[in-house]
Design a protein that fits this description.
Blueprint: E1 3-11, E2 14-21, E3 30-36, H1 41-47, E4 64-70, E5 82-85, H2 95-98, E6 108-109, E7 112-113, E8 132-135, H3 138-141, E9 142-144, H4 151-154, H5 157-170, E10 178-182, H6 186-198, E11 202-207, H7 210-219, E12 223-226, H8 232-239, E13 245-250, H9 255-263, E14 265-273, E15 296-299, H10 306-318, E16 327-332, H11 336-344, E17 352-356
Parallel strand pairs: 10-11, 10-13, 11-12, 13-14, 14-15, 16-17
Antiparallel strand pairs: 1-2, 3-4, 3-8, 4-5, 5-9, 6-7
Helix pairs in contact: 5-6, 5-10, 6-7
Family: Belongs to the zinc-containing alcohol dehydrogenase family.
Cofactor: Zn(2+)
Organism: Pseudomonas iridis
Length: 357
């Protein structure tokens, strides 16, 4: 049986490179030879045991590659074609998809479906930090890469760009809005770019890492609040003359950032939550105005499917957004354990790493 190299979850705090069989291709599947992938903050949650997955699972959910083999019923694609697939791989036929929520497309019962079901790569199915990945429901999920775009130019589309933009979309940002983005990691930076595209005219980024603050300004942030300079809520309220922001986007996943994002909202404002939380959240009585402040709190699992990927690559191709500064480090798949060590500890100014077999 032919084998491939893959990054495998072994136990808490251990993801190792090992050999696994190359997947068999079913009628609706496509086997993709990975040319570039990356590590996500969610993968670090898995590494630390904060998000449970099966022992032996291949990690990773951001694939860029070339079609190696097509299932017998997959039409409209050819072997050797460059493609991406979203981190979320909806079937297009489930209850979730047919009620307009393809990101939640997962195992169903007669009672419905479970949350986060659409995230399969590196969660319920083997992922793409490997030499090959099997894409399910390929007709709904494969998207050709436009000519002229490099792997790194589209590397953010499967998850980071889709998630950050979705935070802006779910926040229902309107032209002229003031927006605060809490935490300028890769997803927060994409949320800044998405807020600008949606029409926000004042975008306040919150962080303390100089490199991230610099990239945030490149992507559209008009103001930067450094949390080392004092109380973040006070700084933002001062910037907005006490009014607060129309929309806040929480992109870290901690009680502190969630609470601050709520406290800076104007009455009737909207908190768009992108963080992956590893403990219970508390909503403070005062910050929530005892339930009388007309606030909205929404969460997002990034949309997937080929149409979402087509649109995002169209944005990149148009030049409206350049996310190339987010790729700060490059590793071979053979060195992925070192890449995890760097990324998990956020050393050396790392934002995103490109992994190439």
């Amino acid at each position: 049986m032919a084998t491939m190299k893959a990054a495998i979850f072994v136990e808490k705090n251990r993801i190792v490179l090992d050999d696994k069989p190359i997947p068999e291709v079913g009628p609706l599947d496509a086997l993709i030879r990975i040319t570039t992938t990356t590590i996500c903050g969610t993968d670090v949650h898995i590494l630390r045991g904060e998000y449970p997955v099966a022992i032996g699972l291949t990690i990773g959910h951001e694939p860029v590659g070339v079609i190696e083999r097509l299932g017998s019923q997959v039409r409209g694609f050819v072997e050797g074609q460059r493609v991406i697939a979203g981190a979320i791989t909806p079937s297009g036929q489930s209850y979730a998809c047919l009620c307009g929520c393809g990101s939640q497309d997962g195992p169903e019962t007669r009672h419905g479906f479970k949350a986060i079901g659409g995230w399969k790569f590196g969660n319920t199915l083997d992922g793409c930090q490997a030499e090959y990945v099997l894409v399910p429901d390929a007709l709904a999920n494969l998207c050709p890469i436009p000519d002229g775009l490099s792997d790194e130019q589209v590397l953010m589309c499967p998850d980071i760009m889709s998630t950050g933009f979705s935070g802006a979309e779910r926040g229902e940002i309107a032209i002229g809005d003031t927006v605060a983005v809490f935490a300028l990691g890769p997803i927060g930076l994409c949320a800044v770019a998405g807020a600008r595209l949606k029409g926000a005219t004042r975008i306040i980024g919150v962080d303390a890492v100089p490199e991230r603050m610099s990239v945030a300004r490149q992507l559209g942030a008009t103001d930067i609040v450094n949390f080392n300079d004092g109380d973040v809520v006070e700084q933002i309220m001062a910037l907005t003359d006490g009014r607060g922001v129309d929309v806040s986007i929480e992109a870290l996943g901690t009680q502190g950032t969630f609470e601050s994002a709520l406290r800076v909202l104007r009455p009737g404002g909207r908190l768009s939550s992108l963080g992956v939380y590893s403990s219970d959240l508390r909503i403070p009585l005062g910050a929530f105005a005892a339930g009388l402040g007309d606030y909205s709190i929404v969460s997002t699992l990034c949309p997937g499917g080929k149409e979402r990927m087509r649109r995002l690559m169209g944005v990149v191709q148009s030049g409206a957004v350049d996310l190339s500064p987010l790729v700060t480090h490059r590793f071979k798949l053979d060195d992925i354990e070192a890449a995890y060590e760097l990324f998990a500890h956020q050393r050396d100014g790392v934002m995103k790493v490109a992994i190439t077999p």
